[in-house]
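Course assignment 3, question 2. Fill in each field.
Student: A.L.
Task: Predict the tertiary structure for the chain below.
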Amino acid sequence: MKKAWILALLGLIWSGVSQAGAVRYEVDGQSFEGYYLAAGQKAPLILLVHDWDGLTEYEVKRAEMLVALGYSVFAVDLFGAGVRPTSIEDKKRLTGALYQDRPRMRKLLAAALAEAGKLGGRLDDVVALGYCFGGAAVLELARSGAALKGVVSVHGGLETPVGQDYKQTKAQLLIQHGGADQAVSLGQFAGLVSELESTGIPYEAAIYSGAPHAFSVFGSENYRADADAKSWQRFTEFLGEVTQG
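Answer field:
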């Protein structure tokens, strides 16, 4: 097991957290509740976007692991305060609404980033990280031309909506995908790689053999410790390469 992975798992003993907890903010009169952890004024900022469950213990744990490595983290809420779906129908409805309204998705992501800045996060040194639905969301943010150092999609949706492209993208991209993912096909993975290659965007794309969709979700039936450890190790290396911290 790699050193960075071990340090992350032991993150709760790290003493550099200066601010933590749930954060309420508003977008167009609707309340949202994110989660912020600060690792100091000079720490790079990670904008973390949840999967289709909404912001849950999983994202909080990942935030704790990242602050243990010296990064401030703002975990975004794209559904609204108190909206944490448990049924498949509700998850499809909430994510589907944002997939159908890309300007709204971008506005919510931009508002979360602005809120992180108000809390002291460094907006000049940001990496966006998303899992599953969140992976699709951070790629939307990349296509918007947001001023990010990096964008990381972990077993995320990879299709580019009709009429969009990566020509305005400023960030380096890291795409992590499971070879046995039945929700997002290898064809979609290859299509994104081809698109990024033709556009000339700096990117890295990795496939983890035998890993199904949501391979990084602790405690789930799809969790694969080997793929999770490898993807986390590469992710933390990537952070060191693209951020100033």
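Instructor remarks: Residues 1-18 have pLDDT under 50 and may be disordered. Residues 28 and 129 are 24 Å apart (CA to CA).
Grade: pending
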